[in-house]
Here is the input.
Amino acid sequence: MGVAVFERLRTREALRRYGLVLSFLLLCLALTLLSDRFLTASNLLNVLRQATINGIIAVGMTYVILTAGIDLSVGSVLALATVVAADLMQTGLPVPLGVLAGLGVGTLLGAINGLLIARTGIPPFVVTLGMMTVARGLALTYTQGRPITGLPASFTFLGAGFLGPIPMPIVLFALVFGVGYFVLARTVFGEWVYALGDNPVAARLTGLPTRRVTALVYVISGFLAALAGLILVARLNSAQPTAGQGFEFDAIAAVVVGGTSFAGGEGGLFGTLLGVLIIQVLNNGLNLLNVSPLWEGVVKGVVIALALLLHRAAR
Here is the structure.
């Protein structure tokens, strides 16, 4: 009897750890059988390139959700940061300064979110929903609803260039993921993030700077949203004030599918990476199979729901 219980517990632990990997591999196997174009080098490279934008945003979203927060403003922050950067570069500002200006806008908006949440106690949903509306309105007002095109060639390297055989967006995503993982798993700040999400009252009573940690995770989210936006604009050579619509939901879906709990304190970036890849592989597979765009949302929703149910069952 004891052996049987032990085996069940061991099986449950294995499912909890490797269930998401198994789901990803099964999805890839199914698409390989359904389409001979899926498992090709060019298509797999395209999947990785397309996953970079959501992946970079999802790294910041992971930090936020680990503290039991939410950031609905990342798509609008992305739009405002990119139109400001693109406009400055188009008017003659050197590319490095334009990039820094865009990143500064994203960081500033993230700091406003974080300070309002940390200092006033207003729920993150309300604060970031308000910022989503304000930032989008500012982006539309700044550009009068028109796209900004004709950006410097040295800037487009960020989105369309290569470092050896590897597209530059993939290199930047790998760098962001590596730094994000190191900070979360190997630094005191990462421990504080988990402690705050696990039990905010206990974290505060033990002397952790909970307000500072709360503010900083939203700063990280805003900074990475701006960085993802700059890569997107560099790839398209066009900054749109309507860019980023719905990006917040893709990022949240990737984080949650990856096993990070909305309650905070549980999860990590490797799960988020798998969640990003699952969503992007699914998008790619639907395109290869010529599934109508009208059905794409339905299929994605079903797959995400099944992934969450499997994760819940494994727990």
Summary: The chain is about 80% helix and 5% strand. The chain has one domain: 37-314.
